[in-house]
Design goal:
Layout lengths: L14 E3 L39 E3 L12 E5 L10 E7 L6 E10 L3 E9 L8 E7 L4 E8 L10 E6 L7 E12 L13 H8 L6 H7 L7 E3 L6 H15 L4 E4 L18 H15 L4 E5 L16 H19 L5 E6 L22 H10 L7 E4 L7 H19 L4 E5 L8 E2 L8 E2 L14 E2 L6 E3 L31 H9 L2
Parallel strand pairs: 1-8, 11-12, 12-13, 13-14, 14-15, 15-16, 16-20
Antiparallel strand pairs: 2-4, 3-10, 4-9, 5-8, 5-10, 6-7, 6-9, 17-18, 19-20
Helix pairs in contact: 1-2, 3-4, 4-5, 6-7
Length: about 500
């Protein structure tokens, strides 16, 4: 029975396999299976807690698969010659050429027996990008290999998982459990939002001289979708978005942005009416994900704006906010190992970074304060924090903040965590008003001379990911009464798409 997430199960024989020069099976074709799964866990019934539907797993050992006791059992008589003369397996697996996959399983046999585990074509030449021989014995062990597929089945025939058991000198009983075939999520690529503001603008303005630049440099690289009160049926909308990502075999990034009192009533103000409404909304958001692979950035600004010093919340509303964030983390965590949640933790200026904790006059949020607030928000249930969301700090500065905050979270809370960085607009770093050494960085009103940062990718130096979180070209909003906002900045309200701002970000001018 499966007791731990398979992504983190230890491997008895960890190996990286390319296409292997081992004999491919020429076994009889297995029964037809359900429509191929494309993403995440490709053998979801592999714990065998209940018998899988007929035709999902098959046997050519002379008897049907036996699932009694929550495992897959097979018995093989002596006398067969080849490994593939007696098999159990699963059809209906879709592979993409060049993508990485991990096969893992527990196995034992009644007597010492050599078997072959494969992931291979279901017919034709039975090409096997993974084929490994192992010797089983009466003590169950865990086996795991990561391999790169050399075949592409998405457009046509499917592949299969097989355990080839033939060629035994004596009658042998085999037991398999916790069989898992997973995609390697980050390497599958990030899903590009087909309905982003930049895409809609580009589609609506085919003759505009800026369209090619906005389409190629922004719309084709926009890899996040924000969800909030504007979604009249958030469960349906999230489900639809993840369906599209799943069909593409890619990893979607979603932002949950509906906390009551959002943005302290500022340019991005709004949110659910109260805690009860928020939890109901979050229930729909989580149900739409339905355990499928996804990255979730949870409530930008919500934790930092709950700081005691100068915050916009009453003590009661502050406690309610921590409770709502805990609720969200708890329910996202319950979705399983393929849903990764990152709680927003401000940026390198707002939430420490340059702040001196030994300076009583410096009223910024300290690392310890932020760590404690994250603890009250359920950081131990999340996978990490998000930094620099909708801001402009360089990746180096943001990594430094993330690293220091992660160390403080571990020190104060005993929680091992990581971080993701919003790199959507940080190519030139943060903006400071020319000639004003005391201006600080201006990060909220479409400042000039900012530039696109690196596209979504796996992080470095401790960061889990570098992600485009704020959609480039979407306005920060205007603060007409704030002298730090450049007068020439685009006058679009928060969230609206500004082609002027988009082109500035492409050009860095």
């Amino acid at each position: 029975m499966r007791t731990t997430p398979l992504l983190y199960a230890s491997a008895a024989l960890p190996l990286l396999a390319a296409s292997l020069a081992l004999p491919a099976s020429t076994a009889q074709a297995a029964p037809e299976a359900p429509a191929p799964l494309l993403y995440g866990e490709l053998a979801p019934e592999g714990a065998f807690a209940t018998a899988p539907p007929a035709g999902v797993w098959w046997s050519s050992t002379g008897s049907a698969p036996d699932y009694t006791g929550g495992t897959l059992k097979a018995s093989v008589k002596a006398g067969t010659v080849n490994r593939w003369d007696a098999q159990v397996g699963r059809n209906g697996v879709a592979l993409r050429a060049g993508a990485l996959y991990t096969l893992s399983f527990d196995a034992r046999s009644s007597v010492a027996a050599s078997v072959r585990a494969t992931v291979q074509q279901s017919g034709g030449a039975y090409e096997a990008p993974l084929a490994r021989d192992v010797t089983l014995d009466p003590v169950s062990k865990r086996y795991q290999w990561t391999f790169r597929s050399t075949i592409d089945t998405v457009a046509g025939a499917s592949a299969q998982i097989t355990f080839q058991l033939g060629g035994q000198k004596a009658a042998t009983d085999f037991t398999f459990d916790d069989v898992s075939l997973t995609t390697s999520t980050a390497r599958e690529g990030f899903f590009v939002d087909p309905g982003s503001n930049a895409r809609q603008w580009a589609d609506a303005h085919p003759g505009d001289g800026r369209t090619g630049k906005i389409r190629d440099q922004i719309a084709d690289r926009t890899t996040v979708k924000w969800f909030g009160g504007w979604n009249t049926d958030v469960q349906k909308d999230v489900d639809s978005y993840i369906d599209k990502a799943t069909a593409a075999g890619q990893l979607p990034t979603l932002v949950a942005y509906n906390i009551p009192g959002r943005d302290c009533g500022g340019a991005s103000g709004g949110g659910a009416a109260d805690a009860e409404a928020y939890k109901k909304w979050m229930d729909g958001f989580v149900a739409g994900i339905a355990g499928r692979p996804a990255l979730v950035v949870l409530e930008p600004d919500a934790v930092a704006q709950a700081d005691v010093e100068g915050n916009c919340l009453t003590p009661e509303k502050r406690e309610a906010r921590f409770d709502m964030l805990w609720y969200a983390n708890q329910h996202l965590d319950a979705q399983g190992p393929y849903v990764k949640t990152y709680i927003d933790a401000g940026n390198a200026t707002w939430t420490l970074g340059a702040r001196r904790e030994d300076d009583p006059a410096d009223k910024g949020i300290g690392l310890s304060d932020m760590a404690d607030m994250l603890g009250r928000s359920g950081i131990h249930l999340a996978d990490g924090v998000a930094v620099n969301v909708a801001n402009y700090h360089s990746t180096d500065i943001s990594d430094d903040y993330g690293r220091r905050l992660a160390a403080r979270v571990e020190e104060r809370l005993g929680v091992d965590t990581t971080w993701v960085v919003d790199t959507s607009r940080n190519g030139n770093g943060a903006y400071k008003i020319p000639g004003d050494a005391d201006s600080g960085q201006v990060g909220f009103c479409n400042p000039p001379q900012r530039k696109l940062g690196s596209a979504s990718q796996v992080g470095e130096n401790g960061a889990a990911y570098y992600l485009w979180i704020k959609n480039p070209g979407d306005s920060d909003g205007r603060h007409a009464d704030d002298a730090r906002c450049p007068a020439e900045g685009p006058q679009y309200k928060a969230g609206d798409f500004s082609p002027e701002f988009a082109v500035r970000l492409v050009d860095g001018a």
